[in-house]
Amino acid sequence: MPMPDITPGAPCWIDLMTSDTEKAKAFYTALFGWTYETGDQEKYGGYITASKNGKMVAGIMEKQADMGAMPDLWSTYLRTDDIAATTEAAAANGGQVLLAPMEVPEQGSMAMYADASGAAIGAWQFGEMTGFELAAEAGAPAWHELLAKDYEAAVTFYQRVFGWETSVMSDTPEFRYITLGAGDQSKAGIMDASGFLPEQVPSMWSVYFAVEDTDASVEKATALGATVTQPAEDTPFGRLATLADPTGAVFRVIQELGQTA
Is the distance from CB of 243 to CB of 218 less than 8 angstroms? Predict the structure, then answer.
């Protein structure tokens, strides 16, 4: 199985900030078949790495008490080869630095920004940890999408800050969408969400997980305590549903077109 091709600027990691790590672990094990390793508390703050078939796919960390009303959520990280320069560029192009670059011993360096549309996005500079080892397979991340309330500002931000070479998928008032890369080589997308995101909901990144059967996954997830926020529907890209896990973190599942369980 080849490793995912993670080019600079592309999604390289995802993690879950959760108020209940044990509940999250049990849920994602039952749904996706994940196994876990917990990092040293002193060195890595007890960061949990999730694997599918022995290959790293995601991280889980406990939400700190001082985070107050912040909801449980999935975050996406983009690869950078120069986290200091990326952080400067983020601040200079309408973004905010939420977490200044921080070295994770031996593993790499991370930072977190609010982009020009207000969505949180992480940056990761490779050390020994070079991103997820499995993608677009059942139980692994399949797609990463920004729902942006300020579409133009968001597109410009990722072009300038992360060096995105973008391809326009659609540019009609009803559906504006660009991708990082084109066609089968595309690695992430930005959608104009100004027409449908409620006022109180900010711009946000959304993580899609590949599944063999969307309907079966939704049924299993709800039996495990998840909530359906958008029922399963056929799209040009596969059968898609949006769920909130038992503590409220939102994610999507997608079954490829033509794929049978």
Answer: yes
pLDDT (mean) for 72-77: 96
141-255: CATH topology:
2,3-Dihydroxybiphenyl 1,2-Dioxygenase; domain 1 (3.10.180)
Give the pair of three-digit tokens for residue 210.
């590949």
Q: How far apart are CA 197 and CA 160, in angstroms?
A: 25
pTM: 0.94
Q: What is the pLDDT of residue 259?
A: 40
Q: Which value, in Å, is the radius of gyration of the alpha carbons in the chain? A: 17
Angle (CA) 180 185 191, round 5°: 35
Superfamily for domain range 11-126: 2,3-Dihydroxybiphenyl 1,2-Dioxygenase, domain 1 (3.10.180.10)
The predicted structure's pLDDT at residue 260: 37
